[in-house]
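Summary for the steering committee. One of the milestones for this cycle was to obtain a three-dimensional model of the protein with pyridoxal-5'-phosphate bound, which we needed before selecting residues for the alanine scan. The sequence and ligand used are listed below.
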Amino acid sequence: MEYFSTNGRSAVVGFREALLQGQPEDGGLYFPTEIPDLAELAVLPWREGREAETAFSLMRPYVGGEIRDAALQAICEDAINFPFPLVEITPGIFAIELFRGPTLAFKDVGARFMSRCLGYFSGSIGKRAVVIVATSGDTGGAVAHGFAGVDGVSVVILFPKGRVSRVQELQLTRTDANVITLEVHGSFDDCQRLAKTALADRDLRNKYFLTSANSINIARWLPQQTYYFATRRQLPDSEIAFSVPSGNFGNIAAGLIAQRAGLGARSFIAACNANNVVPKFLETGHYTPEPAKATLSNAMDVGDPSNLARIRRLFNDDLDLIRENMATASISDEDTAATIRKVNREVGYTMDPHTAVGFASLEKLAKPGAGEVGVVLATAHPVKFDSVADILGNNIEIPDAVARLNDRERRSIEISNSYSEMIDAIKKSL
Ligand SMILES: *Cc1c(COP(=O)(O)O)cnc(C)c1O
């Protein structure tokens, strides 16, 4: 398998090279030259515990032999070692719970897969691999835990001190020895600026192989197809409308490429919060990036979603074709909170704000009829977002896996938002 850049000005590369580079030099995104036929994977009978096997079958053609089969199998089993339970919330509307991994969000799937692939290739790079990530909360935890204990790779996480949730803070600061957590006195933008400058630092690059474990990396993006196939196989006789809480549009782009490979879903909804540049684009035909607005579903506060480039490429930039294949909705914070309250009161199911945006979009756009079901991707556990307890006026029980983090040593270095302070902290810790 080869990967080309959606901007068309960088060389075509194989899986290893695309994984190591992350983003092509021309600023585009890597995209596979062929989409394999995975229709068979969509109709195999489902048995619980098949998640890793599904991941292996679908990633095998994408890896194109660059990782030995036995090693790829081991990577999948190690990475996807948690289930995706399908729960009927209200008649005809299901949640596929993607938050049963170590950091309670779907990003565990891609981050764990990518980390193990990078570990696999690290011996052939010739320098120690150092992953540098700025996070507003969710990504950093998934990356820190995904890489925990992976040989040959160190991780530097930057997060804005005091601006992440209680659970996110625990996940970011109770990590393994190969993870360096920097707690920055500043904003997420400061963290991003510091990370970008570090990634381009010539001195650091000479010594280490630097990469960002960005969500656009093919090794994070492509394995996300796993749970679409897992859902399809658990609902073999239904027409499925998937509703995907969307920010950077990687998760829904994975669903759409799975659909092209033969998933056999009926439809897709990109569920957005007030950050609605894609709904506006499909409505008007003009794409205008905007500064991100802060909302309850803050992991979706994106004003210029990168993975739209992949969706446009998948449909040859034909706007009508995109409209046919992807509906969109934009849900306000009031409606998000009202949905969390209503579902909790009526059926006792507690959703996080991102999942609630997906559920509300499904209610708005897809009225399930006979043989039709709606499936919302439940992208995070409600306990990760302190707003849910405020909305419901009660506390949510912390799962054991998170509670146990309290027993681990707090490992975090406080720094100001100055570059020299960051470099000193990194050099001392590596
Ligand atoms: C990252 C994230 C999203 C958005 O996913 P994209 O692939 O960026 O569209 C949705 N929900 C949660 C909980 C997330 O962490």
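Key point for the committee: Residues 105, 107, 138, 215, 245-251, 299-300, 354, 379-380 surround pyridoxal-5'-phosphate (CB under 6 Å).
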